[in-house]
Amino acid sequence: MVEIKHLSKRFGSVTALNDVSFTANPGEVLGLLGPNGAGKSTTMNIITGYLSSSSGNVTVEGVDVLSSPRQAKAKIGYLPEVPPLYPEMTVRKYLEFIFDLKKVRLPKADHIREVMMIVKIADVSERIIRNLSKGYRQRVGLAGALLGNPPVLILDEPTVGLDPKQIIEIRKLIKSLGKKHTIIFSSHVLSEVSAVCDRVVMINRGQVVADAPIDRLSEAVSGGGMLSLEIEGSPNAISKAISAVEGVKRVNHTVGRNYTVDYDPEVDVRRGIFRAMAKADCPILRMAPGGLSLEESFLKLTEGGEN
Amino acid sequence: MSAIIRRELASYFNGIIGYLVLAVYWFFSGMFFYVYCLYYNSASLSYVFMQMITIIIFLVPVMTMKSFSEEKRQKTDQALITAPVTLTEIVLGKFLAAFILYVICNAIFILYALFICFFTAPDWILLFTTMLGGLLMGAALIAIDLFISALTESQAVAAIFSIAAGMLIYMIDQLASLINIDLIKNILYRLSFIRNFYAFSNGIITLSGVVFFLSVTALFLFFCVRVFEKRRWS
User: Fold this and answer.
1) Domain ranges for chain A
2) Which tens digit of pLDDT belongs to each residue from B152-197?
3) A70 vs B10: CB contact, 8 Å cut-off?
4) Inter-axis angle of helices A108-118 and A134-146, nearest 10
5) Global pTM?
6) Least CB-CB distance to B84: which of A74, A86, A93?
7) Which residue segment(s) compose the domain that B175 sits in?
8) A223-294 fold
9) Which of B75, B82, B231 to mutate to test the interface with A (most CBs of A within 10 A)?
10) Do A144 and A98 form a contact (C-beta atoms < 8 A)?
11) Which of B11, B74, B82 sits opposite A49 (nearest CB)?
12) Which of B229, B64, B50 is nearest to B143 (CA)?
């Protein structure tokens, strides 16, 4: 579990983070989403103790990062944006060094072998890191983060620069790791976030602009629920009938038989709409949760920040 | 800390730098040994040591230029700083690795002393004090050059400034002799590495010399830690 409270960071006169608060719960994959330069890496660097905060505090599994950095760091596995690899070392030697550096108290050879199996780098264990492809380097970095089985994993854009096959593999890996670890994972690729994360914290210009489970993000953005419907019948009658249903705020006739309905998220309006349509003898052909896609939410939020 | 020391030593000897430093140090010390001891029939290694100062000024920067600058450039410092170790441990680890390499360089003098045994009994106590002085002086120079390496991301810049710092330290006596103001002249003489080392090379362990070199070492290692602290907080 990682708790971030009122975190601010200024670099001289530039405010990189402004009162950022969120919590990553155990067994959760939290996506940190935002455009480039929004403050994702800065947030992660503060959580891991690489940078200090100007104000606010971060606790990792209940340990404050600023006051007890060693205990806190021991609970974190960190994969920075550029994996911190020594190019002249072999993969095995590098992992042995990280193992010793982290003072891990597990059987060394077995644990390293196990981690290499998890991230699928056992076949390059004796190769020199300089000669590895980007995908392998990323995985070696991830292996370094996994050493010692830390309860919290912080992964900064782990799929940047990988080919589609590798991206899918890394996503799968993160998803499976998410069952045992608390993961904070940053990205500016939206499809990735929706594929991997349970919850999304969106950051723009150093501020949290949304914090919601992935399937409720559009509600959080639009401030209410939305349904998308396809109904046969006279548009006027249909609009009138639906408007009368309790909880419905607005009905939009988009095109042909398609309608969208904005409603108060406190009320489930679907049964009411069904009954109203049945009464009006207008068959509902399709009813689905509608609203903004992740992309639309993202754009709406980040545009809002710029204005 | 031991993990850092071992990695640093491995990086010296997996690449060329460790062997290069040893080869150059041993070559020049061998040459000076031949000239001052074998050719001039002297049993004292102190002259050889004195001459080695000019070589050390160039070799220590080669040992330390990568230490921090390369970590910063390749962003591997993120692995060190986010690991559960303190900044002091990181800096000490780097320092001790360079110092161990320097000790290995100096160990050749024991071999030279054994050579002298063929002709006469070497002055073991003099050798001991001279080596002690040499090691203390080397430690101070390593600390200064590590600090310079911590300030930049470029190995070349680190090396050039370290050599410049070494030359300045070497020439401080000549500079001092040019200055007319007694106070400044005296301060410069006190800061002179050569003057502080001189007593050691005459078989005297002076408390002021030991304290001087150890303080310089501690001060610059402390500066190193501060450089990293500052980067975190700025």
Assistant:
1) 2-219, 223-294
2) 999 999 999 999 999 999 999 888 888 888 899 889 888 899 999 9
3) no
4) 130
5) 0.84
6) A74
7) 2-233
8) Alpha-Beta Plaits (3.30.70)
9) B82
10) yes
11) B82
12) B64
